[in-house]
Amino acid sequence: MRILLLVAAIVGVFLIVRTLLRSSGKGAPAVPPERVKQQGPVVRCAHCGVHVPHLEAYRAGERVYCSREHALEDARSRDDD
Ligand SMILES: [Zn+2]
C-alpha cells in the first residue's frame, strides 16, 4: 500500500512539473496579439489616412480623426467649400 502511494505521488509531481514547464515555455509569444485585442478596432483618419486605435481616435459627427488638430483642419477646409 505504501508503494502505491509513493508511485502516485511521484506521478503527480511529474505531471505538475511537466504542466508548469509547458505553460512557461509557450506563454511569452502570446503577448502582442493580446495588446491588439486590448486596443480594440483600428479606424482611419478622415484627414490624413493614418490608422489609429478606435479608443484614441477623435470624432466629429460621423468622421474620425487621428488627432484634434486634424479634426479642426478638416472642419476648416470643409467650411471653405
Ligand atoms: Zn490625421
From TrEMBL:
Superkingdom: Bacteria
Family annotation (NCBIfam families): PP0621_fam
The name this protein goes by in its record: Preprotein translocase subunit YajC
